[in-house]
Design brief:
268 residues; Rossmann fold; seven-stranded parallel β-sheet; 38% helix; globular
Length: 268
């Protein structure tokens, strides 16, 4: 028996097989969840190629900047899952490339609005839309992904601000939905070489630093993040809400400028 047997989930944000959302989808499926996917129309073709690997053909186009798209998706979910949704995975982030790199002070007003709308407000809009479906299921779990929200990541710029807004929004949503047994949490994943992450300045240096300086002396994998998502989606986390779990090989506990003090081969 899987931890998620009998549970229905919606995964938002799969772009390709290297996406964190795809790693989470694979882990949820392996533990028994039945999954549906939403994607921008321009990306549906890629999602259609991946979805059969998790025994799903439930895919719908949705632009999270359009309230009518989100409402249409909620009605679709109501039909395909017989009115009940147990899990929502929100793995969406976007910013204009012109607002990444260089000085944060050069962020445009339009770029600010775009990044905050897609990366943060989308969680509010989606949570509101699936609330009735989770109520019908007797509760549920909403999971989002944050990174770089309270420390400066050079080049991440507006995305760091958007992720900070996302994490605070997660807590407010957790407060609103707690009485309905809907839990809302975030995973703070360490650097993972997704296609979008490679656009971040000095990303390869970040990967090397994790390997050399983190307590676990290794980088984070999609499987690591997926396993944490399974915990948050399952009844094992029944009293966990409004929290952000670090999945970063312990790098968050290290002080700035910490040097590697041991090598893996030196540990018996």
């Amino acid at each position: 028996m899987g931890l998620l047997d009998g549970k229905n989930g919606l995964v938002v944000g799969v772009a390709n097989k290297k996406s964190i959302a795809w790693g989470i989808a694979q882990a949820l499926h392996a533990n028994g969840a039945r999954l549906a996917f939403s994607s921008l129309e321009t990306n549906i073709r890629r999602v259609r190629k991946l979805a059969p690997q998790v025994n799903s053909d439930l895919i719908i186009g949705c632009d999270v900047q359009r309230d009518e798209d989100i409402a249409r998706m909620a009605e679709w979910l109501k039909d395909v899952f017989e009115g009940k949704l147990d899990i929502l995975v929100h793995s969406i982030a976007y910013a204009d490339l012109n607002d990444l790199g260089g000085e944060f002070l050069e962020t445009s007003r339009a770029g600010w609005r775009l990044a905050l709308d897609i990366s943060a407000y989308s969680l509010v809009a989606l949570a509101r839309a699936v609330r009735p479906l989770m109520n019908k299921a007797g509760g549920g779990s909403i999971i989002t992904l944050t990174f770089g929200d309270y420390k400066v990541v050079p080049g991440y710029n507006i995305m760091g601000v958007a992720k900070a807004a996302l994490e605070v929004a997660m807590r407010y949503i957790a407060y609103d939905l707690g009485p309905e047994n809907i839990r809302v949490n975030a995973i703070k994943a360490g650097p993972i070489p997704t296609l979008s992450a490679m656009a971040i300045e000095n990303f390869d240096i970040a990967l090397g630093t994790i390997e050399e300086c983190s307590p676990l002396l290794r980088n984070v994998t999609l499987e690591d993040v997926g396993n944490t998502a399974v915990y948050l989606a399952s009844d094992l986390s029944s009293a966990a809400t409004g929290t952000a779990i670090h999945v970063d090989s312990g790098m968050n506990i290290m002080s700035p400028g910490a040097k590697a003090h041991r090598k893996l081969e030196d540990i018996s």
